[in-house]
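Input sequence (79 aa), recorded before submission:
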Amino acid sequence: MRTKTVDPNMPVGKLTKIKNFLPPPDKLIFPDEPVKVTMSLSRSSVEFFKSQAKRNRTKYQKMIRALLDLYVQQHLARR
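Predicted structure, token format:
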């Protein structure tokens, strides 16, 4: 029986796989002017960021904010 070889770099439908551009948690510490928002996150995500923040002696909310900022910058750069 033959197995089909799948190229991991080929698009899936209308989507294209992009390089992992997200930094490790210890690089998510940046000063910035925050805007308050209210949102619900999964318990596992919050626990992950809290443990990483404790390890890096920072606040978990700053790390989440930095992650979102990097995501936005990456997508704005592609315009």
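Checked by second reader. The chain has two helices and no strands.
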